[in-house]
Structure prediction request, 398 residues.
Amino acid sequence: MELPEMNGKDERTKMSGQKTCDVAVIGAGVFGAWTAWHLAKRGKRVLLLEAYGPGHSRASSGGESRIIRMGYGADELYTRWSQRSLGQWKEFFAKTRQPLFLETGVLWMAGKNDARLRETAATLKRCGVVFEEYDRAALEKKYPQIALEEIQKGIFEPHSGVLMARRAVAAVVEDAVRLGVEYRCTQVSNPREARKVEHITTSQGERIVAGQFVFACGAWLGKIFPDVLGARIFPSRQEVFFFGIPAGETRFAPPSLPTWLFQEDLVYGMPDIESRGLKIAFDEHGERVDPDTQSRIVSPEMTKAVREYVARRFPALRDAPIVETRVCQYENTSSGDFLIDRHPEMENVWFAGGGSGHGFKHGPAVGEYLAGQILDGAQSAPRFSLDTKETTQNRAVY
Prediction:
C-alpha cells in the first residue's frame, strides 16, 4: 500500500510556501493516524505529518503484531475502550478488505494471587464480554504444550486476538488520505508561541497554518516539549523475541495455542503467526532510552532470561532457535494512563500519547475521543489529563 508523498524527490520540490488546514496532526502512529481519520470523517481539512513514516521501525506502533484484549482487571474504562476499538478495527478491516485482525483468542493465566483475574471476570461480565474460566485441570487438558508450574487459574477471551500493527497503521493512513487527509513525510519545528500557535514549519521550509495542532509523537513527546513533558514521558527499552517452531509442529500455532499472558510473571506472547515463530516479551519496563539513538540489538542478559523462561513454560521449545528479535519502546506515563490533553500554555495544541505499552489496541477510541474534544468540547476524562501525570513512575495500568 503506497502512500502519497512517500516517494520523495519530486514531491519534496512541491513542499514550499504555506499550507492551511483545520487541524495538523503530527505523528502517524496509531494514535495520530486514527485521530486524523476521525477528524477527516467529520469533514475537517487535516494535514498529517510524520518524520519517518507510518508504523516505522523506531515507533511504538512499529513491528508486526500487537495484542487486543478486553481484560483490564477492575479498570472498566479500558475494557469499554477495547470493546469500542475492536468494533472499529473489525469494521475498518472489513470495509478495506484487509484481514489484519486475527481472532486467536487471549488466555490470561495466574497463580495463587488470582485477584486480578477475579476482577477481570467481574468487569467482563458487567461489560457483556464473552469469556471462559478454566481451573488448573482444564488448562492442563486444553494446553498440554504449556508448563503450568504455579498456575492455578485461567480466563480465555475467545473473540480477542492480534492486530497486525505496522500494516494496520499504514492502512488507516491510506484510508485517511482517501477521506481527504493530506500526508507529509517531514519533520516539523517545535512550537514556541505562548497562548495560541499560528503555524509550525517543516524541514522543507513549508509553513503549516492550522486552527488546532495535535502532537501524537509517542516516545518523542518529551523531546518536543521538554519543559512540559520531559520529566513526564518515560520511554523504556523493550526487547521482543521470536522462537522458531520445530518442523511439522502445530501445537504452537492458532488455534492450538492462543495469545497468552502470564499475569504474575509479567510475560506475554503470541502463537506462531505467519510462520514467524512463538513471540515472547517481558512486560516489565526496561531502561529509559532515547528513541532516536538507542541500540536496536537485543542484549545478552535479556536473551538469556528469555531462553530460560521459554524452557520453563514451553519445554518443547527448550532448544528452539531465536529466529527474529526486535527492540522497540514503550512511552510510559507515571501511572500507565494515556495522556490526552491540551498544552497548559498553548490553547490550540493537544497531546495524544502515553500509550504505556498497552495503547495500540485503543487507537480508534483515542482518535474518536480526541476528535470529540477538539470539535465538540466533549467532557474529558480526568485520568487522561496532564495534571495527573507525575514525574516519578507508579504503574497502575497493566
